[in-house]
Amino acid sequence: MGVETVYLDTIDGIQIEADVVRTSAFPARAVVIIGHPHPLHGGDRFNPVVRALQGAAANLNCHSIAVDFRGVNNSGGTYDDGDSERLDLAAACELADMIEPECPIIMSGYSFGSMVALNVTNPWIAAWIAVAPPLPLMTSTPISAQSSRPKILIAPEHDQFTVPSVLRDATKDWINTSVIEIPNVDHFIVVGAREACQHALSTALEAL
From CA 153, how far away is CA 168, in angstroms rounded? Predict the structure, then answer.
C-alpha cells in the first residue's frame, strides 16, 4: 500500500498533515476520508484501525485520505474538542475532488474521529462510516443523522463507552442508519479490525 504524505489547508488557515493512498482502479469506487481517535489520548493517523480502514479502501478499489487532526504530530493548530476538527476533514474533501473529480466520498472515522466525521456535511459525501462511536462525547445529534444518505455504525460487542444496544437505541430515529456489531471485542478492536472495516466499507459501497 503506497502512502503519500501531503499537507492540506483548512478554511481557517491551519495546515493539516495527511496520508493519501491511491487505488490504481479507474474510476475509483469512492474516496474514503478517515478521522482518528482522541488526540489527547494518543490518537493519530497511524492508529491500527485507521490503517485498517485505509487497507479496506485499497482492497475495494477506493482512494483514501487519513488526516492528523489539528495539533497532532506535524499538523498546525490546537485541539478544539471536535468542533474545528470538522474543518480538517472538510479540507480532505477538497483534496478528494482534486484526486478524482466527482468521485463519491465516504466520510469515516474511528472513536473520536467517528463523531467528528458524522458532523461533517458536504454535497460530495455519499455515506458515513462510524467505527465505535463513543456516545458520551456526543453533545448533540450529529448533522448527518437526518441525511437520507447511508450511515454505517460499527459497534464492538464489549465497547467500554457505548455497547451495541445503547447505540441502537440512541440512533433509532436517525435516517438510513444501520448498526453492525463486532463480536468478542472491546472499543479498541485489537482483533478483527481489518475484517470489520472491510465489511463496513463494502456495505457502504453497496448502498451508493
Answer: 9
Across the beta sheet with 4-9, the strand order is: 4-9, 15-21, 63-67, 31-35, 105-110, 125-131, 151-158, 177-186
How many Cβ atoms sit within 10 Å of the Cβ of residue 11? Answer: 10
pTM: 0.97
Q: Read off φ and ψ for residue 84, nearest 5 degrees.
A: -65, -20
> How high is the pLDDT of residue 130?
98
Whole-number Å distance between alpha carbons of 43 and 36 = 6
Q: List all residues 6 or more positions away from 105 whose beta carbon is below 8 Å from its beta carbon.
A: 30, 31, 32, 33, 93, 96, 122, 124, 125, 126
Domains of the chain, first to last: 4-207 (3.40.50.1820)
